[in-house]
Design brief:
Elements lengths: L2 E9 L2 E3 L1 H8 L3 E3 L2 E6 L2 E6 L5 E5 L2 E5 L2 H7 L1 E7 L3 E8 L7 E4 L2 E12 L2 E3 L1 H8 L3 E3 L2 E6 L2 E6 L5 E5 L2 E5 L2 H7 L1 E10 L2 E10 L7 E4 L2 E12 L2 E3 L1 H8 L3 E3 L2 E5 L5 E2 L5 E5 L2 E5 L2 H7 L1 E10 L2 E10 L2 E3 L5 E4 L10 E6 L12 E11 L8 E11 L2 H7 L7 E6 L4 E5 L1 E4 L4 E8 L2 E6 L4 H5 L3 E2 L1
Parallel strand pairs: 10-17, 20-27, 36-40
Antiparallel strand pairs: 1-2, 1-9, 3-6, 4-5, 4-8, 6-7, 8-9, 10-11, 11-12, 11-19, 13-16, 14-15, 14-18, 16-17, 18-19, 20-21, 21-22, 21-29, 23-26, 24-25, 24-28, 26-27, 28-29, 30-31, 31-34, 32-33, 33-39, 34-38, 35-36, 35-39, 37-38
């Protein structure tokens, strides 16, 4: 969807109102009308843009094959017509008609939008004009499940700030990670006028590229882009580059303090919505989080795109536990705290012996607690032959489990035991209290009294 700056209409060569032309067209679908392009700055300058197609039906014009040209130029004029009618429109690259929604420092996708003023439906643009640039802290929030809009969700401790076209939520990332999509009514009163915005948000955004570092998908966020020195939305640059692979001319790396890092032999290829980086893994693993600037020149346009990337791998100081995160659409830079436990919350099942007991906690970049992840992570717990001998348990009986605070029971984690590497490996999507145990008894007697998920 793009914005239309101007519309003209003609029937049989005579100027008419656009409404008159719509009456003539009715509901008929017009495939492949004649298309003539021009530069709005110099309307007499024709543009040759091959392989562009259009379909006109009533008040809708669907154009394909034009996104990269529109991204490059920013504004294009088009005459669309047949032998007896013509429409002239000037279109510009999509401006934000949806609010920019941030959830705990990360942009979310807006799947639905509705606005009300004084209890009546209103255009979102009108509501923006009412709000102006005023900052509204802690408006009223009502949550619902988009699959069943009449089902209210109780999500405590979530806060919001509304300012113009931006809505910033804090404390919502765990719920968004668990649910994938959430509906929210945001309401308040400005200048004595009551208003409401309804947004349906989901994980991820088309404005943030995926990043792969030496074959490993990593969490990426806070994308920025420029074209010929002008700030643009990252998706505008990605649309300009198109679906083919574009090799960057330069890769620059910076640390958390924006200080330059060595980028020797680092390369980047932009492939659709992905940035494929090579020879960067060692630096990223050492720093944990870095900023990456990728730049080049395409069709005479100088461009740059920057994104913050996170390695997503944590190892405890005692070498016991490793956590390997998948790329995330809900969280930014997750910092993990590992604590050993001497007295676990619950006793182990009968005939089992604890080998290790520990707790994992995490916060994101904004300091908000992270409990739930939108993708499963890998939990790797190390052990030694000496620990097995001291506990008197065979290696093949080792099992990972977590403590479920709601049911107050231990829950088994499907576990792979690597006997050569001396590690137990499990996957799950949340943090809590964990244990590694073993037993001389048969696994059947261990599993029966436990919950499995």
């Amino acid at each position: 969807r793009v914005d239309v700056q101007g519309v003209e209409a003609q029937i049989d060569g005579s100027d008419v109102g656009y409404d008159q032309l719509l009456t003539l067209l009715g509901d008929a679908k017009v495939l492949s009308p004649t298309l003539e392009f021009f530069d709005p700055a110099t309307p007499d300058t024709a543009l040759l843009l091959p392989a562009v197609q259009a379909v006109v039906q009533a008040n809708h014009i669907d154009i394909t094959g034009l996104s990269n040209q529109l991204a490059a130029r920013g504004r294009i004029g088009i005459w669309i017509g047949t032998s007896n009618w013509r429409i002239c429109i000037i279109i510009i690259w999509e401006r934000r008609i949806n609010p920019q929604v941030m959830v705990d420092g990360r942009e979310a996708n807006v799947d639905g939008l509705k606005a009300e003023i004084r209890g009546e439906d209103a255009s979102y643009q009108r509501l923006l004009a009412l709000l102006g640039s005023s900052k509204i802290v802690s408006p009223t929030l009502d949550f619902f499940d988009p699959a069943t809009p009449d089902t209210a969700l109780l999500l405590p401790a979530v806060q919001a700030v509304v300012q113009a076209n931006h809505i910033d939520f804090t404390g919502l990332s765990n719920q968004l990670a668990a649910r994938g999509k959430i509906g929210i009514w945001v309401s308040g009163t400005t200048f004595g006028v009551s208003w409401r915005i309804c947004v349906v948000i989901s994980l991820g955004t088309g404005n943030n590229p995926r990043v792969v570092v030496d074959g490993r998908p990593v969490t990426a966020y806070r994308a920025e882009a420029t074209m010929d020195g002008k700030d643009v939305e990252p998706r505008q640059l990605l649309a300009f580059l198109g679906n083919g692979q574009t090799t960057a001319e330069k890769v620059e790396l910076v640390d958390r303090n924006n200080e330059p890092l060595p980028a020797n032999n680092a390369t980047a290829v932009i492939d659709g919505n992905r940035i494929l980086l090579t020879n960067v893994a060692e630096t990223l693993a050492a720093k944990g989080r870095i900023g990456v600037w990728v730049s080049g020149t395409t069709f005479g346009v100088k461009w740059r795109i920057c994104v913050v990337v996170v390695w997503g791998r944590f190892s405890s100081s005692d070498g016991l536990v490793t956590v390997d995160f998948a790329e995330s659409d809900a969280h930014t830079d997750v910092q993990v705290t590992y604590t050993t436990i001497t007295s676990p919350t619950g006793s182990p099942p009968a005939s089992t012996t604890f080998l290790h007991k520990f707790n994992l906690d995490a916060v994101n970049e904004a300091g908000s607690k992270v409990v739930r992840f939108d993708n499963a992570y890998l939990l790797i717990v190390h052990y030694t032959d000496a620990e097995l001998a001291a506990a008197g348990v065979p290696e093949e009986s080792l099992q990972l489990a977590y403590w479920d605070e709601e049911t107050e029971q231990w829950v088994l984690i499907p576990t792979i035991v690597d006997t050569e590497g001396n590690v137990a490996i499990g996957t799950l999507d949340h943090f809590t209290e964990f244990a590694l145990w073993g037993s001389k008894s048969s696994m059947k007697s261990i599993l029966l009294p436990l919950i499995t998920r």
